[in-house]
Design goal:
Helix content: 55-70%
Structural class: alpha+beta
Strand content: 15-25%
Distance between the termini: 11 Å
Shape: elongated
Strand order of the largest sheet: 1-4
Order of helices and strands: EHHEHEHHHHE
Number of strands: 4
Largest sheet: 2 strands, antiparallel
């Protein structure tokens, strides 16, 4: 007596959905995005040289001489010095070094944008190739099953381990193959699960 058989169709996840998930999780994509963000900040840092700079500095000091006939404490108090300074630098002409640094930072940003785009395209291509390879394997396995069904006469089919339910399922699928949509062919990986 042949066991009862149930069928489970393996639905392939669409490649665009896999791609969206990979964009959020793949470290190479995240690293490229962070490099791009950093390059945008580098532009602002380079542009800061266009603005005037105000510097505040100060110092405290004292000294001690052993040749003077005064105590250490007296000398420290007498030789104590203080200094506070404020300076303003206005960039007038620096031989275009600021302009060149800003341009270099912008070129670096553009380069990182191209790298990110290239990384995304490569990822999408890899996902598409893997998806089509898997789909091809499933179709090949299904075709082998169809060939097996066509080779075994219906009278002998009852004696096989798969049972008549599988035979009728495959026969109906083949008979109506022109009515199947692309999504049907994306889920034709058939697993036969004997129910014991």
């Amino acid at each position: 007596e042949s066991p009862d058989v149930s069928f489970a169709l393996q639905q392939l996840t669409p490649p665009d959905e896999i791609y969206q998930t990979a964009l959020a999780q793949k470290p190479a994509i995240q690293a490229a995005e962070y490099r791009l963000e950093g390059s945008k900040h580098s532009i602002r840092i380079a542009q800061s040289a266009y603005y005037p700079q105000l510097n505040l500095n100060g110092s405290l000091g004292t000294n001690y001489y052993s040749t003077i006939n005064r105590t250490f404490r007296q000398q420290m108090g007498d030789n104590f010095s203080k200094y506070v300074g404020l300076s303003l630098s206005v960039p007038i002409f620096n031989r275009f070094s600021t302009r060149n640094r800003v341009r270099s930072a912008r070129l670096q940003r553009d380069n990182y944008e191209l790298q990110l785009t290239e990384t995304k395209k490569t990822l999408y291509k890899e996902i598409q190739q893997a998806w089509y390879r898997q789909r091809s394997v499933l179709i090949k396995n299904f075709s082998a099953t169809v060939a097996e069904v066509n080779r075994i006469p219906k009278d002998n089919w009852e004696m096989t381990t798969r049972g008549s339910g599988y035979y009728h399922f495959i026969r109906n699928f083949i008979k109506n193959r022109n009515n199947h949509t692309t999504s049907d062919w994306n889920c034709i990986g058939i697993r036969v699960i004997p129910e014991i």
